[in-house]
Design goal:
- The chain has a domain of 181 residues: Rossmann fold (3-Layer(aba) Sandwich), CATH 3.40.50.150.
- It is built from twelve helices and seven strands.
- Helix 4 links the parallel strand 2 and strand 3.
- With 262 residues, it is of the alpha/beta class.
- The protein is globular and about 55 Å long.
């Protein structure tokens, strides 16, 4: 993004260790692409690499690739360099050393943060970098809603939430996002109510800035979609049954693999 910085104001990560632990629990799911890409490439570039834990796991499984990490948070880059010292990490886009044409760029749990904390110009620059650099593969895993969620909220689900134990979080959420009237708002809340340790940041972060339909419609002609899956995390579905006695039938995430056309 412009200047490689994002001002997050009061939405900074208060407890970095808890934030990283949460991210690491989904490491296996974030490696979904590794058995689904077949054309030769040399390097995996992890965009939004945090402390490098995903790269560390990938290196154990696929030592034949080179790895490089990018994150705008200089503290995360410092932690990544300590965690995986044999890998190159940087916090400035222009410092990436890999040849995009022989690389896979992985974008995991990052798109919603770019939209949440960046300007419109930052968002445009993000997509220009992803699609304009000529990466062999682009892989995405992130929270993403379907436009079908823009319907009235399920009355039984909403009643269960309003009568549940998380009234403070619900009140905070509605103060930020408005009274829940749509299924999109309801599912948005259900994805974040448990993250109380960094709550002041989480409640304001937009988990659903764009729909899966819009994301797919914006894929440029130079790429083809070789894999696409929309889904709800099994852990989230279990947690909602446990906390509210409700069943989540809507998808909340997307996995996507794009391959450059030659």
């Amino acid at each position: 993004m412009r200047g490689d910085t994002v001002s997050v104001g009061d939405n900074k990560i208060i407890d970095r260790d808890i934030y990283l632990t949460r991210m690491q629990r989904s490491i296996l799911d974030k490696m979904f692409f590794i058995d689904k890409v077949f054309e030769p490439f040399e390097t995996v570039v992890d965009f939004g690499c945090a402390n490098g834990e995903l790269i560390k796991a990938l290196m154990r499984m696929c030592p034949e690739y080179r790895y490089e990490g990018y994150d705008i948070d200089s503290a995360m880059i410092a932690a990544a360099r300590e965690n995986v010292p044999e890998v190159s990490f940087c916090d400035k886009w222009d410092d990436l050393k890999s040849d995009p044409k022989n690389s896979l760029i992985n974008i995991s749990s990052t798109i919603h943060e770019v939209y949440s904390y960046g300007t419109d110009a930052d968002v445009t620059e993000f997509w220009n970098r992803i699609y304009g650099s000529g990466f062999r593969y682009v892989t995405v895993r992130d929270m993403m809603y379907s436009e079908k969620l823009e319907r009235p909220a399920d009355e039984d689900m909403l009643a269960a939430v309003r009568n549940g134990a998380y009234t403070r979080q619900l009140s905070d959420f509605e103060n930020v996002w408005g009274s829940i009237t749509t299924q999109k708002q309801l599912v948005h809340f259900l994805l974040k109510y448990k993250y109380t340790q960094n709550w002041e940041r989480e409640v304001r972060e937009n988990y659903f800035p764009i729909s899966s339909e819009k994301l797919l419609s914006q894929v440029p002609d130079g790429y083809e979609i070789t894999f696409c899956e929309t889904f709800a995390l099994p852990f989230t579905a279990w947690q909602l049954r446990k906390d509210f006695g409700i069943t989540l039938k809507d998808h909340t995430h997307i996995k996507l693999i794009l391959e450059r056309k030659d």
